[in-house]
Write a structure and sequence with these properties.
GO molecular function, one term: DNA ligase (ATP) activity
Radius of gyration: 19 Å
Largest sheet: 6 strands, antiparallel
Organism: Streptomyces bacillaris
Helix content: 25-40%
Oligomer: single chain
Pfam families: LigD_Prim-Pol
InterPro entries: LigD_pol_dom (IPR014145), MtLigD_Pol-like (IPR033649), NHEJ_LigD (IPR052171)
Shape: globular
Keywords: Ligase
Order of helices and strands: EEEEHEEEEHEEHEEHEEEEHH
């Protein structure tokens, strides 16, 4: 029998709670749901709220079928909010918004990674933050990403911008920058310019081009996720990995002190302690007083 639970007055059917989703640790679907309900909800919901969500689904774990879905899945309850997100191939497209604990738990029961754009549903293509996805090419690791992140932090500060870091939950590191609302195309152009500057300043380490042949041993400074059509893993989402790794906010002391890749790997079990110790390290992204205007004019 499928268990039925009530969350904020909404009845939810929770399925396959004993299924192992993260085989390296034996983490079950029930434990994943507990992570979102008991640990992550208060931190992840503000970063999801009012943004259209894309799901990367892994219902049988990372070794099974893994697929992206943007449209509301079949059977989406009518109380789960959706918003128009027109696409060239589907002008009438809509996407889910995760506005409350009930919709978070409904989505978590589908077994998903949460991915969000840099803009809110009420202002499509107007970004209120900028992202740099630092992706290491083997044998480079997150250690090298941290070196590039520190350079970017200083460069952004020179333009009056604040940068905050989180792990990708996979191999790399994300830098997020709160902005006064600006067109996504302008944010993308500025981010690209800084990626090129990073490559010029750190030619043996940083790379702004995606070409695979160039990437071994270097850190790809991916600025493309600032495009209005792109999304980034939401802070605190679990990732579809053998272990239940989290896209976890980190301090600048942790970034600048990173000497081994393991130092910046955080799992679901680590997050309650980190939230108790630090609170939401990415809370400044939600604070209008931390947002700054996008620099304009030549670099």
């Amino acid at each position: 029998m499928t268990p039925i639970t009530e969350v904020e007055g909404r009845r939810l059917s929770l399925s396959n709670l004993g299924k192992v989703l993260h085989p390296a640790t034996g983490t079950t679907k029930g434990e994943v749901l507990h992570y979102y309900a008991a640990t992550a909800a208060g931190a992840i919901l503000p970063h999801l709220r009012d943004r259209p969500v894309s799901f990367l689904r892994y219902p049988d774990g990372p070794g099974g079928q893994v697929f992206v879905t943007k449209n509301p899945p079949p059977g989406t309850p009518d109380w789960v909010r959706t918003t128009p997100v027109p696409r060239s191939e589907d002008p009438g497209a809509r996407q889910v918004m995760i506005q409350d604990l009930a919709s978070l738990m409904w989505a978590a029961n589908l077994v998903v990674e949460f991915h969000t754009p840099q803009w809110r549903a009420d202002a499509p293509e107007i970004a209120d933050r900028m992202v740099f996805d630092l992706d290491p090419g083997s044998p480079a690791t997150v250690v090298e990403c941290c070196v590039v992140a520190s350079w970017l932090r200083e460069r952004l500060a020179a333009d009056g911008l604040f940068a905050y870091g989180k792990t990708s939950g996979s191999k790399g590191l994300h830098l997020l920058v709160p902005l006064e609302p600006a067109p996504a195309a302008e944010v993308s152009a500025y981010a690209r310019r800084l990626a090129v500057e990073a490559e010029d300043a750190l030619p043996d380490l940083a790379l702004h081009r995606m070409k695979r042949a160039l990437r071994p041993g270097k850190v790809f400074v991916d600025f493309s996720q600032n495009s209005a059509s792109k999304t980034t893993a939401t802070p605190y989402t679990l990732r579809a990995r053998a272990e239940p790794t989290v896209s976890a906010p980190v301090t600048w002391d942790e970034i600048e002190g990173c000497r081994t890749p393991e130092a910046l790997v955080f799992r679901a079990d680590d997050m309650a302690g980190r939230l108790e110790r630090y609170g939401d390290l990415l809370g400044p992204l939600l604070d209008p007083d931390r947002a700054r205007p996008l620099p304009t004019g030549p670099g």
